[in-house]
Amino acid sequence: MTQTSRALQFALRAMYAGAALSALSIPLTFAARGSIAEGIRATATTATQRGAVDDITTGTVGLMVTVAAVSVVLWLVLARLNRRGRWWARIVSTVLAGFAVLQTWSLVTRGHLPWYGIVVQLLIALTGVVAAGWLWHRSNAAHFERVAALPQR
């Protein structure tokens, strides 16, 4: 195994771990519904908002589950495309890792998640940053350049 393939394998393993963590966040989101509702209730400023806490909570949980499910698919698809050496997949992976960091910052600073939700979100963001770092490792340059020079199907 060459250094290039070792660095790429580390990146791919991190991406598969990110997919697993994103999948784990789905049932944890349902488990955190009470904490999410408490956070929404605490920040509600009008009577209308206080009366709609259940609806807002349901929408928030639904959105978080949808984002997690899409994240699982993106982790897996981008891992496959990076393994194939698609140069643009490395860029997209890096941008999405940045979005994961921003999402984690947003979720952590709002205080609506229990400790286990915060831990999983932090791990997802860290995994994205690690995967992006390994994708851009200098030993992978030949892998992405070689495939970029080939005609695409």
TrEMBL record:
Sorted UniProt keywords: Membrane, Signal, Transmembrane, Transmembrane helix
Ranges that cross the membrane: 61-81, 88-108, 114-136
Signal sequence range: 1-31
Protein name as annotated: Uncharacterized protein
